[in-house]
Amino acid sequence: MALSRERAYTPPDRLERCTTPRGELQLQRRGEHLEVISNGSFLMATYNGASERELVRLAMGAARQVGRVLIGGLGVGYSLAEALSHSDVEHALVIEVEQTVIRWQREYFAKYAGHVQDDRRVETIAADLTEWLGGADEVFDVICLDIDNGPTWLVSESNGWLYGEDGLRRLGEVLAPGGVVAFWSASRVDAFADTLRRRFHDVRQCSVATGVGGEPDWIYLARAPRRDS
User: How many alpha carbons fall within 13 Å on the CB side of residue 14?
Assistant: First the structure.
């Protein structure tokens, strides 16, 4: 999600700033777009939703069925909007750790991604995904995770659990047969692809142009785990 050179030199206007249990969140406007800064690090923006949409498009295209979708991280709402564009989706569950981001999506980001939370198929839960997964008893056809900036560029170190052996095992337990789990990453991490291959089938790593220049984003796809995992 690197900024283009032109945007990097455009001073932003701060709209909101708040303190959460995970630190400081800031919402700022840069030209016609909005950016979210977490503890001083760039987290997301309204001008680079291409890879967030591609995350869902690729995962749903690879899955046998797409009736039940889990999205980790609401963000601007681009991933959720892509999921809802598929008429076969019956239930889209979104887990977003920041209640403030859930509000910002309604009040600020809906202009860019639509009023996605108002869709009758959507359920939004304010929770830490790593904690929520511990008690989850649902099974999903597609799981799309846009958590932090990927396996290695973490704003919150606790999110690292999702990309390790324990997190991947738990994700496999809530993934339906033939289901697909997809991860968004700000950089290519070959070691993560190797970790996925030890537990899942048909692992793919795909580069996606951001639309704003600079290095591509990356998406990791994996099919339901082996029976002997």
Answer: 7
